[in-house]
C-alpha cells in the first residue's frame, strides 16, 4: 500500500538555539527537509526553561522563520525535551501463561507489556516513552511479539524514560501557546539517535552523545535496541563559564576564544604560545596562554565524557561495535575526537546525515541532528501507529485522497 | 536608652526544665538530646532494663521495678511496666518536684513505654509541671498487638498530658533516602524530636518582641484528643522569609502544610537577626495564610536575636484532632527527602542573643570561640565587650551550611582555626571601623552585628526598640545554663565551596553529581 507524502515538524528548544525543522516524508520514506527556522534561545538554561516569556518570544520567532522558509503552515510539532531530571531505565515484565493455554495470545503479550511498563518512578515523575526493546519467550529472545507461538512464559523488556511532570508540562504549555499542537514529546537523545544511527550500527552497538549548549544527552544502542539513555546537565555553556571563571574574561570573549581558539585534545603541540583575539580595529584585545585555555576546556569535556561513561551499564563500552557518534554544537570543538577516543577507546564519528535531499550542505551539521532526528522519529511513529484504513476509509479516499 | 528589667515571672528559668527518657526508645532519644547538647536542661533516664540504663549518657537515672523485673526489661508487657513504675513512684516524684516543664520522651508499643508513661505523666502533673509528651508509634510490621498497646497508652496520655507530640515510625522513611542506613533513619527521627523540644523550650523561655509564652502554647495545643503538628525552618539570604516557611512546612509532621488546613489554632514563632524587617514578617505571614484556614486563631510571636546574623527561623506549632490526621494523605517520599529539614537547625535558632547570653551562662561555645580574637579578656557578662565578639559574616554562612551538614560533624568539629583567623582579620581594625570591612553583597548594610558604634545608626527605625531589649540586663542572675546548642563550626571546605563564584550559574541550585558541583570548573576543582 503506497503512502502519501506527509509533512512533519520537529521542534527543539535548546539551551543555545530554538530550532524548528519542517520535513517532508515522501511515499518512498525518503525525507526532504523543506525548511529550518532557527533562532538564538534565551531563557533556557541546562535544557530547561527558566524564563518563560523570553523562551516564548524565541519560539515565536523560530516559528515564523520556519513557516517562511518552508512555505508550510505549521499546526503541530514533535517536541524534543531534555533536562537533568529525565532518565531512562530498563525493566522487564514477566507473565506466566495459565496452564490450559499453551499458545501465546495478544492479551498475554499485552499483560507482560503492562507489567514491564509499571516501573517504580518518583511520584512527581511521568513517563515519556515506554520503548519496547524485545520479547522473551521461555528464555529465548524474540525481536517481535511472540503472539501465536507455543510457550509458557512471556517476557517484555522495556526501556522506560521518565521525567518530572511539571517541567515537561511547562514545555508543552509553551508550545501550545503559539498555538501549536504537540504530536508527541521525545527525549532528545532518542530523536538524535534516529538520525545518527542506521539499523546496522544499532545492531553492532553504538553510543550517541549529543553535547549541546546546556546539556549532554546520550543514548546507547546494543543489539539493535536502546539500552541506556540520560542527560547530564553540563554543556558548552559550562566550558564558556569555566573560561570566564578561570581567566576572568567576560562571557562574550570567553565564548569567542572557545570557538576560535579552543582545543580539547591533550596534544601539547597545540598548547604552545598564546591565543589572541583582535577587536574590530585589528588591535589585540585579549591574550591568553593556550596551555591554560586548552586545559580548562579539556578538563571540563573530559569530566563530562567520563560521567557519561560512568552512567552506562557495566561492560557496555566494550560491547560497542560500531562506535561513538558525537553530535551537538560542542562536538565541533577542535580535538574533541581525540579526547573522546581517549575516554572511550572506541571509534569516534560525527554522523553523516543520510538520504536527505534539499539544500544538503547546511544540514550536514551536528547542531541540527536532534531536530532532523525528530522528523525521523515522527516518520517511524507514524508508520507504527498508522493502521490500514478500513473499508470506509478506502471509499473515502477514492473521493478525497488527501486524508491520512 | 534606659534599660529596664523584665518581669521575671513571665519567664521560666531553664533549670525548671526536665527531660525524661522513658523505656528503651525514650533512652535513645535522650541520648541524642544529650549528644546534641542541651546541657542546660536536666536529663533523666527511666527504664526497667538495667543494661540500657547503665550505658545511657544521662546524668540522672531511675531504675523501675527493682524487685519486680530485677533489672530485666518489661518484655513488651504494659502491665509489667505499669507495676514496675508504681514501685519507683517516690523516686520519680522527687525528681520532677519543682520543675515547671517536663518533657517526656517515650516509644509506645513496648512494655515500659506504654505501661509507665501515663503514670510518669500523672506524677509530673501532680507536681504542677507542664508536661509535653513526645511519643513514637510502632512500625506497622510490629503487628497489631503492639499497635493496640500503643493506642491504649496514647489515649491515656492525651488526657493526662498538657501536650502530646506523636511521631509515627512508619513515616520514618520520609525522613531519609531509601538507601540510607537504618541508623540514619532513627537518628533523623530522634533529631526531629530533639528539635521540637528545643523549639518549645525556646518559645517558652525566651522573651520576644511580640511574646508568646506558655499560655499561648497551651492554647495552640488545646484540642481534645489531639496530635501535635510541628515544623521548624531556617533560611538565610534574599528570600529567606519564603524559604524559611518552605523548610518549616517540609517537616514530615506537617505534610507540606496540607495538615494545617484543619487546624484551629496555630502558633507561629519567628526569630531573626537585627535586620528582621516588618515587611519580611508580613510576607511570611501572607504566604502562611494560604495554608492556614481563615478562621484559625493565629498566635504570632517574634523575637530578635543578633546571633542569628541574617538568618530567619520559623517555628510552627499546632494541634489537630486525631481523626483528621488519620485521613491525611501521606507525604511523598521523594519530596520529603529532597529538602530535608532535619539536620539540626539549632545553630541558626540558637538564642545566643544578647539577653539570652546573659540569661544563659556565658559558656556558649560561640563565646568561647570568639572571645579571644576580639578583645583581650572580655567579661562575657559585660554587654559592650560581647557585642563586637558576636560573629561577623561567618554566622550567615555556617547557619546555611549546618543545615546540610550531618549533625555529628557539628558536635564533633572543633573550632576551626582558619575561621577564627578570618575573624581576627576582620575584627583587627576594631569594632568601630568595621563599617569599612568588606561585607558580602547579600547582607544589608544595617546588619553588621559586630559593630556597636554603627548599630543604632544603621538600624532601621522600626527596629530601634530592639536595642532596648537587647541591652536588657540579666534576668536570672544565677544563670540557668541551658545551652540551646550552638554548634557553629562546620567543615571549612563547605564554607569555601559556598562562596566560590559560579559565573553564569550564580544563584542556581548546585548541580551536584557524586558530590561534585558540576557548575564549578573542573580545572579549579581538580587542582585542590
CATH T-level fold name of one domain in chain B: Rossmann fold
Can you tell me the CATH superfamily of one domain in chain A?
Answer: ATPase, nucleotide binding domain
Query: Biggest β-sheet of chain A, characterized?
Result: 6 strands, mixed
Helix content of chain B: 40-55%
Quantity of strands of chain B, as a count: 12
Indicate the low-confidence ranges of chain A by residue numbers: none
Average of pLDDT of chain A: 84
Instruction: Give the number of helices of chain A.
Output: 12
CATH topology label of one domain in chain A: Nucleotidyltransferase, domain 5
What overall geometry of chain A do the principal axes of the alpha carbons give? globular
For the record, the CATH architecture of one domain in chain B stands as: 3-Layer(aba) Sandwich
Gyration radius of chain A, rounded = 23 Å
Q: What is the class of one domain in chain B in the CATH system?
A: Alpha Beta
Q: What share of residues are in beta strands of chain A?
A: 25-35%
Distance between the termini of chain A: 13 Å
> What is the top-level CATH class of one domain in chain A?
Alpha Beta
Question: What does this protein look like?
Answer:
The complex is a heterodimer of chains A (404) and B (528). Among the domains of chain A are: 76 residues, Dna Ligase, domain 1, CATH 3.30.1490; 153 residues, 2-Layer Sandwich (Nucleotidyltransferase, domain 5). Helix content of chain A is 35%, strand content 30%. The longest helix of chain A has 22 residues. With 528 residues, chain B is an alpha/beta fold. Among the domains of chain B are: 149 residues, Tubulin/FtsZ, GTPase domain (Rossmann fold), CATH 3.40.50.1440; 145 residues, no CATH class. Chain B has 23 helices and twelve strands. In chain B, the strands form three sheets. In chain B, strands 3-2-1-4-5-6 form a six-stranded parallel β-sheet, with helices on both faces. In chain B, strands 7-10-8-9 form a four-stranded mixed β-sheet. In chain B, strands 11-12 form a two-stranded antiparallel ribbon. In chain B, strand 4, helix 5 and strand 5 form a beta-alpha-beta unit. The chains are: A alpha/beta (404), B alpha/beta (528). Chains A and B meet through helix 6 and helix 8 of A and helix 12 and helix 23 of B.
Amino acid at each position: 500500500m503506497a503512502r502519501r507524502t506527509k509533512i512533519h515538524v520537529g521542534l527543539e528548544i535548546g539551551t543555545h538555539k530554538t530550532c524548528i525543522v519542517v520535513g517532508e516524508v515522501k511515499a518512498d520514506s525518503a525525507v526532504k527537509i523543506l525548511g529550518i527556522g532557527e533562532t538564538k534561545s534565551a531563557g533556557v538554561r541546562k535544557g530547561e526553561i527558566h524564563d518563560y516569556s523570553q523562551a516564548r518570544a524565541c519560539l515565536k520567532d523560530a516559528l515564523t522563520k520556519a513557516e517562511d522558509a518552508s512555505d508550510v503552515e505549521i499546526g503541530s510539532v514533535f517536541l524534543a525535551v531534555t533536562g537533568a531530571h529525565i532518565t531512562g531505565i530498563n525493566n522487564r515484565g514477566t507473565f506466566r501463561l495459565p496452564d490450559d493455554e499453551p499458545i501465546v495470545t495478544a492479551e498475554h503479550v499485552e499483560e507482560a507489556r503492562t507489567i514491564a511498563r509499571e516501573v517504580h518512578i518518583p511520584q512527581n515523575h511521568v513517563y515519556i516513552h515506554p520503548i519496547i526493546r524485545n520479547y522473551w519467550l521461555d528464555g529465548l529472545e524474540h525481536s517481535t511479539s511472540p503472539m501465536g507461538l507455543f510457550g509458557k512464559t512471556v517476557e517484555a523488556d522495556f526501556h522506560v524514560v521518565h521525567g518530572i511532570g511539571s517541567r515537561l508540562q511547562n514545555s508543552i504549555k509553551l508550545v501550545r501557546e503559539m498555538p501549536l499542537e504537540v504530536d508527541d514529546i521525545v527525549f532528545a537523545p532518542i530523536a538524535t539517535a534516529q538520525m545518527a544511527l542506521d539499523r546496522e550500527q544499532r545492531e553492532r552497538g553504538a553510543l550517541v552523545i549529543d553535547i549541546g549548549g546546556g546539556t549532554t544527552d546520550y543514548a546507547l544502542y546494543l543489539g539493535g535496541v536502546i539500552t541506556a539513555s540520560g542527560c547530564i546537565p553540563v554543556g558548552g555553556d559550562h566550558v564558556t563559564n569555566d573560561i570566564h571563571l578561570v581567566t576572568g574574561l567576560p562571557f562574550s570573549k570567553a565564548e569567542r576564544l572557545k570557538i576560535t581558539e579552543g582545543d580539547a585534545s591533550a596534544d601539547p603541540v597545540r598548547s604552545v604560545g598564546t591565543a589572541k583575539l583582535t577587536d574590530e580595529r585589528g588591535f589585540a584585545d585579549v591574550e591568553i596562554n593556550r596551555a591554560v585555555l586548552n586545559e580548562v576546556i579539556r578538563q571540563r569535556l573530559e569530566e563530562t565524557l567520563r560521567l557519561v561513561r560512568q552512567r552506562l551499564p557495566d561492560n557496555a563500552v566494550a560491547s560497542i561495535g560500531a562506535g561513538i557518534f558525537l553530535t551537538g554544537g560542542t562536538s565541533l570543538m577542535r580535538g574533541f575526537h581525540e579526547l573522546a577516543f581517549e575516554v572511550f577507546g572506541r571509534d569516534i564519528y560525527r554522523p553523516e546525515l543520510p538520504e536527505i535531499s534539499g539544500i544538503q550542505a547546511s544540514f550536514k551539521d551536528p547542531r541540527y541532528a536532534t531536530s532532523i532526528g525528530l522528523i525521523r522519529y515522527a516518520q517511524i511513529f507514524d508508520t507504527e501507529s498508522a493502521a490500514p484504513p478500513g473499508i470506509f476509509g478506502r471509499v473515502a479516499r477514492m473521493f478525497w485522497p488527501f486524508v491520512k | 536608652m534606659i534599660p529596664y528589667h523584665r518581669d521575671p515571672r513571665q519567664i521560666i528559668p531553664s533549670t525548671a526544665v526536665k527531660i525524661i527518657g522513658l523505656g528503651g526508645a525514650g533512652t535513645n532519644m535522650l541520648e541524642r538530646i544529650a549528644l546534641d547538647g542541651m546541657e542546660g536542661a536536666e536529663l533523666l533516664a527511666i527504664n526497667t532494663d538495667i543494661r540500657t540504663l547503665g550505658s545511657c549518657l544521662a546524668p540522672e537515672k531511675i531504675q523501675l521495678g527493682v524487685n519486680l523485673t530485677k533489672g530485666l526489661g518489661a518484655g513488651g508487657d504494659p502491665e509489667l511496666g505499669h507495676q514496675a513504675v508504681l514501685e519507683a513512684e517516690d523516686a520519680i516524684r522527687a525528681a520532677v518536684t519543682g520543675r515547671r516543664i517536663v518533657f517526656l520522651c517515650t516509644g509506645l508499643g513496648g512494655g515500659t513505654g506504654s505501661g509507665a508513661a501515663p503514670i510518669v505523666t500523672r506524677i509530673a502533673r501532680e507536681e504542677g509541671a507542664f508536661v509535653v509528651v513526645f511519643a513514637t508509634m510502632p512500625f506497622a510490621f510490629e503487628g497489631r498487638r503492639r499497635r493496640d498497646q500503643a493506642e491504649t497508652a496514647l489515649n491515656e496520655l492525651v488526657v493526662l498530658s498538657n501536650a502530646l507530640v506523636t511521631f509515627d515510625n512508619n513515616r520514618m522513611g520520609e525522613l531519609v533516602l531509601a538507601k540510607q542506613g537504618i541508623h540514619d533513619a532513627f537518628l533523623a527521627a530522634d533529631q526531629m524530636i530533639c528539635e521540637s523540644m528545643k523549639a518549645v523550650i525556646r518559645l517558652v523561655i525566651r522573651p520576644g518582641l511580640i511574646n508568646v509564652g506558655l499560655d499561648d502554647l497551651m492554647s495552640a495545643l488545646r484540642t481534645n484528643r489531639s496530635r501535635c503538628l510541628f515544623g521548624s525552618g531556617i533560611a538565610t539570604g534574599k528570600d529567606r522569609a519564603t524559604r524559611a516557611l518552605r523548610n518549616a512546612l517540609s517537616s514530615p509532621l506537617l505534610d507540606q502544610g496540607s495538615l494545617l488546613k484543619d487546624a484551629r489554632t496555630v502558633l507561629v514563632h519567628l526569630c531573626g537577626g537585627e535586620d528582621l524587617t516588618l515587611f519580611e514578617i508580613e510576607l511570611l505571614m501572607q504566604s502562611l495564610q494560604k495554608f492556614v484556614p481563615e478562621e484559625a486563631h493565629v498566635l504570632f510571636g517574634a523575637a530578635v536575636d543578633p546571633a542569628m546574623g541574617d538568618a530567619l527561623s520559623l517555628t510552627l506549632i499546632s494541634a489537630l484532632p486525631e481523626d483528621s490526621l488519620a485521613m491525611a494523605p501521606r507525604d511523598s517520599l521523594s519530596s520529603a527527602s529532597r529538602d530535608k529539614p532535619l539536620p539540626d537547625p539549632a545553630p541558626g535558632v540558637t538564642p545566643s542573643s544578647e539577653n539570652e547570653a546573659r540569661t544563659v551562662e556565658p559558656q556558649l561555645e560561640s563565646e568561647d570561640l570568639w572571645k579571644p580574637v576580639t578583645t583581650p579578656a572580655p567579661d562575657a557578662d559585660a554587654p559592650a565587650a560581647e557585642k563586637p565578639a558576636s560573629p561577623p559574616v561567618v554566622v550567615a554562612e555556617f547557619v546555611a551550611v549546618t543545615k546540610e551538614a550531618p549533625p555529628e560533624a557539628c558536635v564533633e568539629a572543633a573550632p576551626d582555626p582558619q575561621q577564627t583567623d578570618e575573624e581576627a582579620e576582620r575584627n583587627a581594625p576594631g569594632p568601630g571601623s568595621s563599617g569599612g570591612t568588606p561585607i558580602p553583597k547579600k547582607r544589608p548594610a544595617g546588619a553588621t552585628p559586630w559593630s556597636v558604634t554603627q548599630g543604632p545608626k544603621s538600624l532601621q527605625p522600626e527596629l530601634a526598640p530592639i536595642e532596648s531589649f537587647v541591652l536588657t540586663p540579666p534576668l536570672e542572675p544565677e544563670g540557668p545554663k541551658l545551652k540551646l546548642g550552638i554548634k557553629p563550626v562546620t567543615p571549612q571546605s563547605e564554607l569555601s565551596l559556598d562562596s566560590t563564584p559560579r559565573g553564569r550559574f550564580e544563584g542556581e541550585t548546585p548541580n551536584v553529581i557524586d558530590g561534585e558541583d558540576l557548575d564549578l570548573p573542573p580545572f579549579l576543582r581538580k587542582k585542590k
